[in-house]
Amino acid sequence: MIRYQLQCDKSHSFDSWFRDSAAYDSLSATGAVSCPVCGSATVEKQLMAPAIGKSAAKTDDAPSQAMALAGEQLRQLRELRRQIEANADYVGPAFAEEARKIHYGETDSRNIYGETSAEDARELHEEGIEFAAIPWVPTAKN
Ligand SMILES: [Zn+2]
Description:
Blueprint: E1 2-8, E2 13-18, H1 21-29, E3 43-50, H2 71-87, E4 89-92, H3 95-103, E5 112-114, H4 118-126
Parallel strand pairs: 4-5
Antiparallel strand pairs: 1-2, 1-3
């Protein structure tokens, strides 16, 4: 998965995760990527942070600051985030390094998620290292 930090034409910043950069490109080209605050489909990438993750877990629901997202979409995205957090190791800014080690068999194969620069993400992509992205919604805190 790959995480993009996006900004709409009204300067609202938000994060979105996509399966890969091509998925972002095609969604964005059809106007399917829109600002959760104002709904504008004119959005641009800022930074990105990819993650590798697999899913399997169940989640609950809870409110959060991202109420501007459509409820069902938010619920699904939050569930996806929880699945990733439950099934992948968070490696933070070391994502690119860890993804390479896994790809080249230098460490145990496992699911990871984290953050990296746009440049590192592009290099990973060029090396054929798979990652994808989903909208990374805030978790709910009670
Ligand atoms: Zn906006």
